[in-house]
Write a structure and sequence with these properties.
It is a multi-pass membrane protein. InterPro entries: ABC_transp_permease, BCAA_transport_permease. It comes from Jiella endophytica. Belongs to the binding-protein-dependent transport system permease family. LivHM subfamily. The protein has 290 residues and is mostly helical. It has one domain (17-219). 73% of the residues lie in helices and 3% in strands. The protein contains 11 helices and 2 strands. It has helices at 4-35, 42-60, 68-91, 95-117, 142-164, 166-176, 178-183, 188-210, 220-235, 240-261, 268-280, and strands at residues 132-135, 138-141. It has a two-stranded antiparallel ribbon with strand order 1-2. Strand 1 and strand 2 form a beta hairpin. The termini are far apart.
């Protein structure tokens, strides 16, 4: 039986990891909340962002955290362009077409990463990758602490943007009633592209926060997107608050499952939560009925 200190330490580390998971899920739930579709390219775009962090570090020697503003802007532009120039025109206004287009993009991005970087698993070591903070009897990884702080700060900035800025108000208007928003002079196509760009920017920030402690390969995105989708279902489709709370819960569940069942079985708890949420609370913690 584990001591209370070990359990509490696992709980704290789970919360730290869960905050970064929540940031990955935030982009997914934001796109769903406005466009009302699941972005199947979400995981592949995260993998691309992680390789971008690795590439910039190797070429320019920039620390992952220093890259956050640069990559956030680049991936916002990439997401905006993909929605405006590829996903929107190819979908012809049909949601089922959007799903197929994003699935196709996922396959293309993964294969481009395989062609460009090979199938090897890579990691990025920094001075703080294996350093810890001693908080009483507990040891907390510095990179996890920095990552959680960055994720929470990003979520707070996104919430302020959506609630206070004119563009954020336009996004919320389109999410609620796109026809009414269009009649008020809001460009729905532009709002869709901005929303998709914000989702990709969240992925870029998450990649910068993940890479000091996690590895990357061209197919790593599928593992994260499964966790992100579980978080979105648990928190409520389209709910930003739900995504953050769901991420923290999933981080704790994964950490505790890894502690008691072993690291290789750590994700069993995640998918058990997923099944229970679908059975007993399909709208999620903060979701609304259709």
């Amino acid at each position: 039986m584990y001591s209370a200190d070990i359990i509490i330490e696992a709980l704290l580390n789970g919360l730290l990891t869960g905050a970064i998971y929540a940031l990955v899920a935030l982009g997914l739930t934001l796109v769903y909340g406005v466009l009302h579709i699941i972005n199947f390219a979400h995981g592949a775009l995260l993998a691309a962002a992680m390789f971008a962090v690795l590439f910039v570090n190797q070429i320019l020697g920039l620390d992952p955290y220093v890259q956050i503003p640069l990559l956030a802007v680049i991936f916002f532009g990439l997401g905006y362009g993909l929605q405006r120039l590829v996903i929107g025109p190819a979908s012809h206004g049909r949601d089922e077409n959007i799903l197929l287009v994003t699935l196709g993009l996922s396959i293309i991005i993964e294969n481009l990463l395989l062609a460009g970087f090979g199938s090897d698993t890579r990691s990025l070591n920094t001075d703080y990758s294996f350093a810890v903070f001693e908080v009483g009897p507990y040891l907390l990884g510095q990179a996890r602490v920095f990552g959680a702080a960055g994720a929470l700060a990003t979520a707070a900035l996104l919430w302020l943007f959506l609630s206070r800025s004119d563009t954020g108000k336009a996004i919320r208007a389109v999410a609620r009633e796109k026809i009414g928003a269009s009649l008020q002079g809001i460009s729905v196509g532009h709002v869709y592209a901005v929303t998709f760009g914000l989702g990709c920017a969240c992925l870029a920030v998450a990649a910068c926060l993940l890479l000091p402690t996690f590895y990357v390969n061209p197919r790593i995105g599928s593992a994260y997107v499964l966790v992100a989708f579980t978080i979105v279902v648990l928190g409520g489709m389209g709910s930003i608050v739900g995504a953050m709370l769901g991420g923290l819960i999933i981080g704790v569940v994964e950490s505790m499952s890894g502690l008691f069942l072993g690291e290789s079985l750590g994700q069993i708890g995640i998918f058990l939560i997923f099944i229970l949420a679908l059975l007993f609370k399909p709208t999620g913690l903060f979701g609304a009925k259709a």
